[in-house]
Design brief:
- With 157 residues, the protein is an alpha/beta fold.
- The protein has one domain: Rossmann fold (3-Layer(aba) Sandwich), CATH 3.40.50.620.
- It has 5 helices and 5 strands; from the N terminus they run E-H-E-H-E-H-E-H-E-H.
- Strands 3-2-1-4-5 form a 5-stranded parallel sheet, with helices on both faces.
- Helix 1 links the parallel strand 1 and strand 2.
- It starts with 5 loop residues before the first strand and ends in a 19-residue tail after the last helix.
Length: 157
């Protein structure tokens, strides 16, 4: 009996971008199930609440039983173990991202045996980040070209 290939795709996802969507869709070519895992980080100042982010991403994948959206407030490897995930899915845009992700992947493997699958961001998405989208939102600009069309952003005044 083959084990189900379950991965978590961890992040803050504040907000979820077309780059994130690309990584998930491409990850589905390799994996049986992806759990989009929104990490709760009390030290980070977020634009959207955890509940808003959960609902936005769930609405995007509604009807796709291979995708789950959850939040967690623990070490990523502990969350992965709690949902029987054997893999962590990550996307990287730059060499700097690679160095950071490689270090984290090495620690995660040493601590838990979990493997990290890294997908390179598609060239048309390398300039997109949640940080840039938040900045656009804060200054009243329309970031819709960077957000999946099914996600309806809440604009704060």
């Amino acid at each position: 009996m083959l084990l189900k290939k379950i991965a978590i795709f961890p992040g803050t996802f504040d907000p979820f971008t077309v780059g994130h969507l690309s990584i998930v869709n491409r990850g589905l070519e390799l994996l049986d199930e992806i759990i989009i895992a929104i990490g709760v980080n009390e030290s980070k100042s977020t634009y959207y609440t955890i509940d808003e982010r959960l609902e936005m991403i769930r609405s995007l994948f509604r009807g796709n039983d291979r995708i789950k959206v959850m939040s967690y407030n623990s070490l990523t490897i502990d969350f992965a173990a709690s949902v029987n995930a054997r893999f962590i899915l990550r996307g990287i845009r730059t060499v700097n991202d690679f160095e950071y992700e490689r270090t984290i992947a090495d620690v995660n493997r040493a601590m838990s045996g979990i493997e990290t699958i890294i997908l390179f961001t598609e060239p048309q998405h390398t300039h997109i980040s949640s940080t840039i989208v938040r900045e656009l939102l804060r200054y009243g600009k329309d970031p819709s070209e960077f957000i999946p069309s099914k996600i309806k952003l809440i604009i704060r005044k």
